[in-house]
Amino acid sequence: MRSGTWLRTLVAIAxxxxxxxxxxxxxxxxxxxxxxxxxxxxxSTDIIAxxxxxxxxxxxxxxxxxxxxxxxxxxxxxxxxxxxxxDGYTFLVISVSYAVNPSLxxxxxxxxxxxxxxxxxxxxxxxxxxxxxxxxxxxxKELIALARRxxxxxxxSGIGTTTHLSMERLKSALKLDITHVPYQPxxxxxxxLSGQTQISSTSMPPAVAQVKAGKLRAIAVTSAQRSxxxxxxxxxxxxxxxxxxxxxxxxxxxxxxxxxxxVNRMNAEVMKALMQPDVKEKLTSLGxxxxxxxxxxxxxxxxxxxxxxAQAVKDSGAKAD
Length: 321
Hints:
By secondary structure, the chain is an alpha/beta fold.
C-alpha cells in the first residue's frame, strides 16, 4: 500500500472512530432512538420521518425507529413525547398542526412554546386545491362561480390543518358556502379522486402524482410564489385573492429539558439526512422545499408561527372538540 493511500485510510478510520465516539456520548444506551410521528402511515409527516430515521440511524450507529401515534391533529403524539424523558431517545415529528392545535382545541394537551425544544425544520410545502377532472372548473374564478351555483364539498387533511384553514379563509373572504369534510392527511386527496367530494385541499406531496397523471386538476397553490414542482399552477394571489402564503411545514421537536448538545447534534444529523441526494430528490419531487436551518433558527420560526395560526383560527371560527 502506498504511503499516501495508507495515510488516507488511517484518517478515514480515525474520523469514523471519532464520529462513533461522539454518537456514543449523545446516545450511550443501546436502545433505539424513537421518532414519534403525529400522523398515520403514508402521510407527509410519516414520509419525512422514515426517510430521515434511516439516514440518522446509519450516521449515529444506532437504531432509529419511526412510530406512528396519530390522532387529534397530531396532539396524541405530542402528548406522548411531552411526557418522555428529555434524554435524546424520543423526538416528535409533526406538521404545522403543532402550532395550530393549542388555539384550535379547548385543551390540546401541550404548550408549544414551553413543553418542547424545537430541533429542526424538515421542510415545507404549499397547499394545493384540486378537483376531479369532471368538475367544470379550470381555475379559481370558475370554481368560485360553480360554488355559487350548486352545492360543493371539499376534503381537507383534517380540522385545523392549514389545508382546512386556507379554504376557510377563501370561503370567508368570498362568502362561499362549501361544505368541509375532514379526512386523515394521507387520504384527503382520494376524496376528489373517488368523487366523495368535488374538491380536495391538501399539501403538495399526496397530490402531485395524481395531478401529473391527469387524475386530478390543480386549481391553485396557497403559497405566495408558484411551486417549482408544478410551475404551471397559479397561486391564489394571482387569481384575485390577497395575502395568501399558507404553508404546511414539518419539524422535529424534543421534550423540554433535552440538553442543547443533544438538540444541536440531532439538528445536524437531520440536516445531513435531508441534504443527501437521494432523500432531497425524493422530497423535492413530492413538492417539499428543503432548506438548511439551525435549532435556534427553527425555534424563532416556531415563535412566529404560533400567534400567526392562532389569529387564523380565530378569524376562521374553526373549532375542534
